[in-house]
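Handout, section 4.2: multi-component inputs.
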Amino acid sequence: MAEHVSKLRQPLVPEDRTYKQMSEDVLDTLERKPTKAWLAGFSISVLFLTIGLIVIGYQIATGIGVWGLNKTIGWSWDITNFVFCVGIGHAGTLISAILLIFRQRWRTAINRAAEAMTIFAVACAGLFPLIHMGRPWLAYFVFPYPNTLGPLWVNFKSPLLWDVFAISTYLTVSLVFWYMGLLPDLATVRDRTKSKFRKAIYGALSFGWNGSTRTWHHFEVLSLILAGLATPLVLSVHTIVSFDFATSVIPGWHTTIFPPYFVAGAIFSGFGMVLTLLIITRKVMNWENYITVGHVEAMCKVIILTGTMVGLAYGTEFFIAWYSGNPYERYAFVNRAFGPYWWAYWTMISCNVISPQFFWFKKLRRNMTFVFIITIFVNIGMWFERFVIITTSLHRDFLPSSWAMYSPTWVEIWTFIGTFGLFFTLFFLFIRLLPGIAVAEVKSVKRYGQKGDKPVNVIA
Amino acid sequence: MKKDFILATFEDDRHVLAATKKARDKNMPIFDIYTPFPVHGLDEAMGIKRSILPYVTLVAGAMGLLIAIALQVYTNAIDWPIIVGGKPFNSIPAFVPISFELTVLFGAHTTVAAFLALNKLYPGKQPHIFHPEQTCHTFIMAFEKNSVNAEEVSQLVKEFGAVEVKEESADVK
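Output:
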């Protein structure tokens, strides 16, 4: 271990590695044959993806009447999964954009994987509204294109259309941000590999990157601009997702607290998912020197912060429901906590508000097994949050004669598992075929917190 | 077109930074420096002009904003006015989210396109690579041969820890 300069500036790469070794540590997996663990994980993901595709084919051919919805509950699993998937995407953008603006240099080791997760999660999220349309071949109707139907335009006053724009912008901007960051590392793969095939592929993918300082100069400005654009973008995306609910008149949905509450929840669930993935990845890929316990600990701190914000939001909305004096609003909340879906509500509270509080203890934050278990709870809790908000607000509506209960059919359950199949298939491919850590960026923080960190002007 | 270059190979980013500062002090024009990662302060030491990308973003973002407003006002208030949710045809607050999104969409993608164009990067481009390790762990400082004094360059870079100095003629796109 290299010598420390300060206790406050712990090295980001604890074990001293040369630049060459750093490239080897991260990029050599691309040159090797896949391991058995990878093959097993990949096969299971592809299996679930295949089942998912069959089930999606079935429900599109038959119609979405095969879902468990009824005339009272017109939105349930489908939208829950959509919001859940968009939410987990948010951590990637937070790490790559917001932490870049705040000059948090520890982000360099985790931003690539987290951002890949964002893109895959948003792609999965996009599937749900697409299926929900029932006739996905008419999906282009959601865009304002000149047509001969009137001309009939989309309704720009609808939050569902805002979502179309928000999600498309988010997906495409995240994708280019991620890909531009990949260029230098793809060039490294191109120049290191001995295989002609890989040289050709990565050569084409790296856009002719040669490491020129002029290019790097533009590159750094570009990163900062994209981060500056992506930061308000990520906040706007979940704000707009929350508008899907908040602009309606349903008791339990019609609240102004929704945008900040949804954004905090999104970041919370996203960090949960990032940690779940990275705790396994760092172990399997032998990246413990790059994605360190310190990284995990820092992310745990974000989880306490956002988890507590979410807890505060639960408390606030409950209090305001009572304080408003509106009997319908009050009933919606009492019914959430003590009605027939009480178990969902209390699962949400215990997973989202109580479980992150363990992270106040440093020992627990640094215990990988413990952190992994808590992140699973966070993932479950945040799925339930969306289920609670959506289903319990709808199931007892204005007329007691139309009150109803909802339970998913096998079609909905397998569609959801299928999207996990898609997500993990993409993630496994990513970790095999692309540099999973932004090597070039990690090289630039190699000396952080170590002797020689300060620029040297004259070499003796 | 091929040109003659003098290439100095470094193994430490601090050395190349120090050499660059010295070369600038002595008014030696540096053609380019190839590094595996962005070396902090190197662009400044080389005297590279500030990137114009922020202006591209500003203009493109403003375009996106105007297009978004024009699109929404034209479709909802002029071409086919419909009352939705009791709002006026020209309901500005309802147009805010999409106006913001299109500002970001245009700003981001145009900036990326400008970045690629400025650096002449495109899929499948075959760049000239002076040293196979310049994207991994070595730092290559390139001078154009006919604009510097070869002796002087060689002496300067060696003073700052260059491990190799050689000449090469190449066609750098």
